[in-house]
Structure of DUF779 domain-containing protein:
Amino acid sequence: MNPKISRLSATEQALDVIRKLEDQYGALMFYQAGGCCEGTQPQCFEKGGFFPRMNDAMIGTINGHEFWIDRDLFEYWKYSHFTLDVTDGFGPGGFSLETPLKKTFRINYRLFSPEEYENLEPVQRSE
């Protein structure tokens, strides 16, 4: 039996920023919305600092921190692998915890192959 394919990964640069945020804030969570104001960049909050809407999708964890996606955005991107990355700059809204570090999380996407898509880890839905 083949191991399940993860929908999510992170670059070393993103993991470095996450470790700094863990030291300062403790447990974290990520949320990627599909709205106009926050754009579609992932935002990082203290765990419990944001409440996913009904039927939003948790596609995996990064360093043990849940990564949630807006339910409509997930339907659009469900055929894609998400790689969390970070870049210098000030993201939309400025509510994400990495903002004071003058960093912005971003996602790089790639489509799953048909074989990968058939063997993906399941998503968890909020109730």
Summary: The chain has a mean pLDDT of 91.
